[in-house]
């Protein structure tokens, strides 16, 4: 975006000045460690130009904050946005000082640079010790990133620093974040990536391969334990996995995101359809369909407790795969102890109980009596936690 030249502006307290010739087209600026691409021309104040990337016909690249350029550049370029062009007046203390750079730059020279910010590659130190450096090659979509437990789908290519291919997966590889992987760097990096993002990882040997997996590989000999790696990584997609109980005995993998933000609560009338399967794929239970859904009251022991709790975390229209550990929750007689069973479930619709402030007095009294009765029955059955929830609701209604 073209604009009139702006007045000079001080940057810092050491005499660096900046005058914007052309405004940038973003609010983002580069961070230390980023690879910056600029065009520039430089001259001594009151003198002729001594250097120009435009004359050479190639942009200039450098890493910000790595002492690859003079301090005036470090401080000035860090304030620039993509597409911005500015004139920087750099005092000797932030340039070449008392020694200068003979024969082009005399001692104690103030320098004038015309710099245009073309772009930059974002580089992040993911471990804080330089063990995994991530350079974003293609920005991803949105702002969400996967978390531990989520099922991610990635493509990757692993090479040694000399270019030798170690491992490659073009078709896409699925794994759960938090699982032990042959290369810890991949798992750590994926948690910082957005959907569709492509990145290049520079990996020190301590974060590299523990062992080589069974993907398509070509090693041309053994990989020494101290081998550093270059990994090209793409996050294709992921499915969120929710630990419903906090003990990994009931896990919900979202297959299709639902509508809005509201979810059923205890006592809500839910319309669902689900299929229960054993680990070998055998169907042991099938309830409801989209055309004729199963209607149930949430948390009223009408279905498996683990599935019931999972449904209460779903949104309207959501489809999920719920995995329940049989030793933690009651299951069908077809399911043996300590096995896993899987429910493909869809929450078609739900209706919440009316809030107490919308009830007539007689409705409040009836609801209190009902909650108290249900609580007493649960208490007698030894289900103390569920009984306490009923009593809490009774007190709330009163």
TrEMBL record:
Q: What is this protein called?
A: peptidylprolyl isomerase
Which EC class heads this enzyme's classification? Answer: isomerase
Q: Which UniProt keywords apply?
A: Isomerase, Rotamase
Q: Which GO terms describe its molecular function?
A: peptidyl-prolyl cis-trans isomerase activity
- Give the source species: Vitis rotundifolia (Muscadine grape)
Pfam families tied to this protein: FKBP_C
- The record places domain PPIase FKBP-type at 33-121, 149-239, 267-351
Signal peptide as annotated in the record: none
Q: Which reaction does it catalyse?
A: [protein]-peptidylproline (omega=180) = [protein]-peptidylproline (omega=0)
Q: Name one GO cellular component term.
A: cytoplasm
